[in-house]
UniProtKB/TrEMBL annotation:
Annotated spans, Disordered: 85-105
Domain SWIM-type as annotated: residue spans: 6-41
Annotated keywords: Metal-binding, Zinc, Zinc-finger
Origin superkingdom: Eukaryota
Record's keyword annotation contains Cell cycle: no
GO MF, any single term: zinc ion binding
Biological source species: Dendrobium catenatum
Basic residues composition-biased segments: 91-102
Keyword ATP-binding in record: no
The name this protein goes by in its record: SWIM-type domain-containing protein
Amino acid sequence: MSSRSFRVDLVDNKNCICTCGKTIIYHIPCPHVVSCISELRQSHYNYVSQYYSLDNYKMTYADPFHNIPDRSTWAQHDPSSGIHPLLPPNFRRRSGRPRTNRFRNTMDEGISQSNRKCGACGIVGNNKATCPTRLVLSFKFFI
């Protein structure tokens, strides 16, 4: 469970705003909005953007797709006419393992570690390295 709270504003039957920001980015209700709408016993389908409607989906693929012409009809590379060859980008790869581009979400939140007990004193909230009683005990041994 997440310990964060989010504010949900249901403006009208078509618009909703959540402080998590997912409704604005994806144009579909986030889980917080769906939870609020289900409490009101309404359908969350009313809050999905028109981008995802069946009519807009059909209009996306209504125009024909143009095939790439045969390679013999392509223009030749001629710098005098302004047609330059398409070259790969001029950069070098970094050494080592590439960095991942993973977007974290609510499932990646870890369980809070505050319920662990200290191995030396048994008190919740510290460990052996930071145990205040252990520091007192070690000081007595030096005396």
